[in-house]
Amino acid sequence: MFIDETIVEIKAGDGGNGCFAYMREKFKPKGRPSGGNGGAGGSIWIEGSADLHTLQDADYRKKYAAPRGAHGQGANKYGKGGEDVTMLVPLGTVVYDVDTGETLFDCLEKGRREIVAKGGKGGLGNAALTSRRNPNPDHCLPGKPGQSRRLRLVLKVLADVGLVGRPNAGKSTFLSTVSRARPKIADYPFTTTRPYLGIVKIGEGYESFVMADIPGLIEGSHTGKGLGIKFLKHIERTKVLAILVSADCPDPAGEAKMLVHELSQYSPILAEKPKCFIMSKADILSHGEKPRMPKGWFLMSSATGAGVSKVLAKFKKMLDAVEQN
């Protein structure tokens, strides 16, 4: 199951209490203070993992709690600290505090960790409270409570090129043709119900980029119609957008305008990204038929391979330009 957003509750461990005790020695029924400090509570961390591709584990668990610190003991024995808990999330996950709306962490690098709930400090025993003015304190201190939070986890896939188009515009076929990704492909709307990523190699060298296919957009997607609105966040991080329009569309320019409008209504950031306009499914045109294609567009057929190399070369050129800026 592909889950890209969930809310979890986290609770760091409380600190252990300090101990009130005195050293017991022969002929000295009440020796010097000897109560040890309590241990610190365990903290909760979030770490990005390249092995996860969905928030399913976090959504299933819902609650994360770290153990409390052990209480201090007599004979100046300190309590053991509670163990930390690490929550693994896919790369591209953004972590928000539900109550404040604050962005706490953006997991973009494998292995990078961030603390999201601090464990409580351990309380002081009476041995640690002694001073010149008060060599015999009559109390100890309790541990501090661990931090509690509600977190909203939002997964935004990491890709260089994002494919945008209506359902059945040929996005999934294109992705499967140029990469090893295997999205579901069929002749009915909304075949793609989750984002798919594919690594596209360029030429004979080691150069490559990541391309993402998201569910198709329809008019009104930004208001919640269809499936596209749910997944538009997955192309917010892309560097380049590829707008695909099927060759059998009666008004390619109007179709592209509608798609760009839906993107801009969802996020101004998407509207400003570099775009490559592609007329896909060129193989469905009759022999000798000229496509009604606006100037500057690319004509491509994933089925026959015609025009695909030119499109990939254009992507590479656009990505290089983004990197230079």
Core attributes:
Spo0b-associated Gtp-binding Protein, Chain: A, Rossmann fold, 6-stranded mixed sheet, 14 strands, 17% helix
Beta-strand percentage range: 15-25%
Which shape, going by the Cα principal axes?
rod-shaped
Number of domains: 2
CATH class of the largest domain: Alpha Beta
Total DSSP E strands: 14
Query: Strand arrangement, largest sheet?
Result: 10-11-9-12-13-14
Short description:
This protein is an alpha/beta fold and 325 residues long.
Blueprint (SSEs and pairs):
Blueprint lengths: L4 E7 L32 E6 L6 H6 L1 E3 L19 E6 L2 E5 L5 E4 L6 E5 L30 E8 L5 E5 L5 H8 L17 E6 L6 E6 L14 H4 L8 E7 L5 H15 L1 H5 L2 E6 L17 E2 L8 H17 L1
Parallel strand pairs: 1-3, 2-4, 9-11, 9-12, 12-13, 13-14
Antiparallel strand pairs: 1-8, 2-7, 5-6, 5-8, 10-11
What would you note in describing this structure?
- It contains 6 helices and 14 strands.
- The chain is rod-shaped and about 110 Å long.
- Strands 10-11-9-12-13-14 form a 6-stranded mixed sheet, sandwiched between helices.
- It has 2 domains: 1-155, GTP1/OBG domain (Spo0b-associated Gtp-binding Protein, Chain: A), CATH 2.70.210.12; 161-324, P-loop containing nucleotide triphosphate hydrolases (Rossmann fold), CATH 3.40.50.
- With 325 residues, the chain is α/β, with parallel strands linked by helices.
- It has helices at 56-61, 171-178, 228-231, 252-266, 268-272, 308-324; strands spanning 5-11, 44-49, 63-65, 85-90, 93-97, 103-106, 113-117, 148-155, 161-165, 196-201, 208-213, 240-246, 275-280, 298-299.
- 42% of the residues are buried.
- The protein is 17% helix and 23% strand.
